[in-house]
Amino acid sequence: MTHNYQIQEDVILRQYLPKDFLENATGFQPSETDSFIVGYPRAGSSWVAYILYLLRNGGEPIGIGERLWEDVPEVGVGRHVQQPFGKYFVHLADLVTHPRILRTHLPPDKAPVHPKSKIIYISRNPFDTAVSLYNENRAINEFSGNFDDFFTYFLHGQTDYNDYFDHHVEWSNRKAMQHILWITYEELKQYPRAIIKKLGDYLGGIYERNANDDYIVKEVIAHSSLTEMKASEHLLIQPNPNRNNGLSFFQDGNIGNYNKTFSKQQVKQLSERFSREFSGTTFLNTWKKQGLPIYVNNNNNNDYINHNNNNVITITKSNHR
Questions:
Q1: Rounded to the nearest 5 degrees, what angle is found at the Cα of 198, between the Cα atoms of 194 and 203?
Q2: Cα separation of 258 and 33, whole Å?
Q3: Sulfotransferase domain: from which residue to which, for each copy (predicted)?
């Protein structure tokens, strides 16, 4: 078994990323007009990025010569340019017209987000996230073990961008909570029209106008389907030379697919961890409706949720694992 990774400033990153990835990311200068798509890896941030691209462009799909990773870039991605006075780093984000939609998987203490920026946090249930992350890491040759091995890493927060639960908790505890819109992968899959409207209302401007146009929303939903995104993968996902031929970045994405991979013991272990961390939260209630095996310990009063408004939640992390 091999588990290829690197650690930059206490953040676990994939081995293929540049050694100065985090340095470049934290050195990025954001604007107050920037909006960010944030999420743990495999939660659906690429899906949201394309939905917003389609929404802004009136439902028109991405065309030849365009690249989603350049139009809605990840912070920290770019290239070094050699000049007579030396080498410097050019962020893809700095080549995008303002106002920008940007992406990051980084924890909040490392993410270069302007205090006035709007933040869309996309969350996916930990069961399907774990399986999707496992499949992707195998597809790009970052992990060669079986799922049992990978599950142990995931359960103990030793996978891409550190612990799944900490990622949620730390972002929810940001001081700029009023600027965060929380959505879930599951709600987006089941109620795309409602979530697209919520995204448009949150971002305002052309996004809001187009999210209230039935024809445009219909086109956005059609072109952001799994079938169409797989067909346009070469325009949506930056090529990775480590990817095994024939293995798409886009997996089937069905809710509850973890059942094909998880053992009963693994379901129990992750359910217990989830209950300790998220008991009483909107996330837990949403995923319970999907039939996911979330068990709540009603005697545990260490985790709770405050509802500030329809879009904002605050999660208090328990002290036990």
A1: 150
A2: 38
A3: 33-281
Query: Cα separation of 238 and 252, whole Å?
Result: 19
Query: Please, which residues have CB within 8 angstroms of residue 252's CB and are 6 or more apart in sequence?
Result: 226
Token duo for residue 164: 């799944």
Closest-CA residue to 165 (of 123, 132, 131) = 123
201 domain residue, yes or no = yes
- Encode pLDDT of 71-82 as tens digits: 999 999 887 776
Give a yes or no: residue 275 inside a domain. Answer: no
What 3-state class would DSSP assign to 182?
strand
The pLDDT tens digits for 92-133 are 898 899 999 999 999 999 999 998 999 999 999 999 999 999
In a domain, 314, yes or no: no
Residue 47 belongs to domain with CATH number: 3.40.50.300
Asked if the structure places residue 311 within a domain, the reply is: no
Contact 54, 213 (CB under 8 A): no
pTM: predicted TM-score of the whole model, two decimal places: 0.87
Burial of 9-27, coded b for 16+ CB within 10 Å and e otherwise, reads eebbbbeebbeebbebbbe
Range of the domain at 43: 5-125+157-255
Tell me the CA distances in angstroms from 206 to 26, 116, 197, one per residue in order.
30, 19, 12
DSSP 97: P
Through-space distance between the first and last CA atoms of the chain, rounded to whole angstroms: 27
Q: Please count the structural domains in the chain.
A: 1
